Amino acid sequence: xxxxxxxxxxxxxxxxxxxxxxxxxxxxxxxxTPDGPRVAHAPVVLSDDRSSLQFHLARGNALTRHLGxxxxxxxxxxxxxxxxxxxxxxxxxxxxxxxxxxxxEGTARKLDDSELIAQLDTLSAIHEARIGANPPWTRDKMNPxxxxxxxxxxxxxxxxxxxxxxxxxxxxxxxxEERDRVIDGIKAxxxxxxxxxxxxxxxxxxxA
Length: 208
Prior knowledge:
alpha+beta; 208 residues; Pnp Oxidase, Chain A
């Protein structure tokens, strides 16, 4: 779908892309390789200053041996749902799709062993806290030799982000009344997260 400028986050939504990347914490990583375009799926850690994205891949992954020094694209996909044209008052409408997606572009570099372990520690700490684990899991609970063997099977990367391209397509180009009907329809279809996000953001319709 074409990322119309009406669906770019507005100034009052500057933090939305960052918040979603941190909240979702999982991305598709794309890059070109001599064997053709490839994609990998991985948990990610965004730096505090949002300038870099860290992740790790299995050494056997089709991207791993080509990613160091390469240009890459990371995509975090948020909630999405079908929008029926019947929810609009105007009959001359077509069905569409509401969605949130954040693209980040940059150059990837391999992490050394200490950087990889730091990434793994950060990743587990974030998500152990989210699930309320008490006590939280840490690598100190593992046999150090086994942990070292398992980390030897993965490679860590850091992508320095040179461009953010978020798309927030939430019916901003529709009237408040139509937008409310879309929210109700999406909610009735079981897509509560998207409906809540639409309701929270409100209708930023300038530029629609």
